[in-house]
């Protein structure tokens, strides 16, 4: 059995919830089948992402983030260091990125400038008009999938299935495509395709290609590869869910490295992670089912939005 297991989320919900609890306690990563995502919707978004990265640099730069804090648009190769979201400094990552955010604004008035910035307009390249529709449809599909997974998580935590519903109904989720270009030069010391990091929100839904290179840190502190499975999505728990569960569930360190083999180590890789968060003003504090008798919470309560923003800002300061 692979270290990162495969779970059919179309099975009986109670059984799936129990399986998720076990996996999230021990691994923090798993792959899902039975997810119901339309292949055509996913393939159009994937192909549009590939075409975007194949554009001339001038067309990509036309939708570059206008400021360092702007959350959406193009980030060039070496424009981000995910390891810096943890602590200290690290070499920039060997990847380029395109980000989009929410397709609709929340119903409430936004008085916090940081919250308003999360709903900044998405940037779309004039040279690739099909990108906007393909990505919007995929964003909605991923949002719906995340909303179907959260009741399963609630069951696994011994909570009512609708426990998280009001806490994620207006959350600022994000979609990104990542291109790890083929290269012919040697990286800097300690430089990876994506440095070791944890994700910031509740969960991540990732589509990856067959090139490989994604690794997770296991309980013995060994790096283990996440083998690509056709048609499956990789799911991992983020920092907010770990805080919510008092570390009952693991927000696991992961990274992207060169796959083994002379040719594979230089091969181009593409992935598309969708980051599900909680509502900006949702308080993340220890869940009642995750606190044993006599135990105290490991974390102070935080608001989901400011936590997310703080992590993002650290990752882009190079």
Describe this entry's structure for a reader.
- β1, α1 (13-26) and β2 form a beta-alpha-beta unit.
- The longest helix has 27 residues, at 130-156.
- The radius of gyration is 19 Å and the shape is globular.
- The chain has helices spanning 13-26, 39-53, 57-61, 113-118, 130-156, 239-244, 304-315; strands at residues 6-8, 29-33, 73-75, 96-100, 174-180, 194-197, 203-208, 214-217, 223-225, 233-237, 254-256, 269-276, 283-284, 302-303.
- α1 crosses α5 and α2 (39-53) crosses α5 (130-156).
- It has seven helices and 14 strands.
- 27% of the residues lie in helices and 19% in strands.
- The chain has a single domain (6-315), classed as Jelly Rolls (Sandwich).
- It has an eight-stranded mixed β-sheet with strand order 1-2-10-7-12-5-4-3. The protein has a four-stranded antiparallel β-sheet with strand order 6-11-8-9, with no helix packed on it. Strands 13-14 form a two-stranded antiparallel sheet.
- With 318 residues, the chain is α+β, with helices and mostly antiparallel strands.
């Amino acid at each position: 059995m692979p270290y990162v297991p495969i779970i059919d989320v179309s099975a009986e919900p109670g059984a799936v919830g129990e399986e998720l609890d076990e996996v999230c306690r021990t691994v923090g990563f798993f792959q899902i089948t039975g997810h119901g995502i339309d292949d055509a919707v996913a393939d159009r978004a994937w192909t549009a992402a590939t075409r975007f990265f194949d554009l001339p640099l001038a067309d990509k730069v036309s939708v570059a983030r206008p400021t360092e804090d702007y959350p959406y648009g193009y980030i060039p190769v070496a424009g981000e260091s995910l390891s810096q979201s943890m602590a200290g400094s690290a070499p920039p990552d060997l990847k380029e990125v395109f980000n989009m955010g929410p397709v609709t604004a929340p119903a409430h008035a936004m008085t916090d400038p940081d919250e308003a910035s999360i709903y900044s307009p998405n940037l779309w390249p004039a040279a690739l008009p099909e990108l906007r529709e393909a990505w919007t449809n995929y964003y909605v599909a991923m949002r719906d999938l995340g909303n179907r997974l959260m009741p399963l998580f609630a069951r696994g935590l011994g909570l009512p299935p609708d426990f998280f519903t009001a806490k994620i109904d207006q959350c600022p989720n994000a979609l990104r495509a990542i291109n790890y270009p083929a290269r012919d030069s040697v990286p800097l010391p300690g430089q990876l395709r994506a440095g070791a990091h944890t994700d910031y929100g509740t969960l991540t839904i990732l589509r990856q290609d067959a090139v490989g290179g994604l690794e997770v840190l296991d309980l013995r502190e060994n790096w283990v590869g996440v083998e690509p499975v056709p048609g499956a999505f990789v799911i991992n728990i983020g920092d907010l869910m770990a805080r919510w569960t008092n570390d009952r569930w693991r927000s696991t360190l992961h990274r992207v490295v060169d796959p083994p083999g002379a040719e594979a180590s230089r091969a181009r890789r593409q992935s598309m992670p969708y980051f599900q968060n909680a509502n900006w003003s949702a308080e993340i504090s220890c869940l009642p089912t995750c606190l044993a008798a006599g135990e105290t919470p490991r974390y102070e309560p935080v608001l989901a939005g400011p936590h997310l923003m703080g992590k993002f800002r650290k990752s882009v300061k190079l």
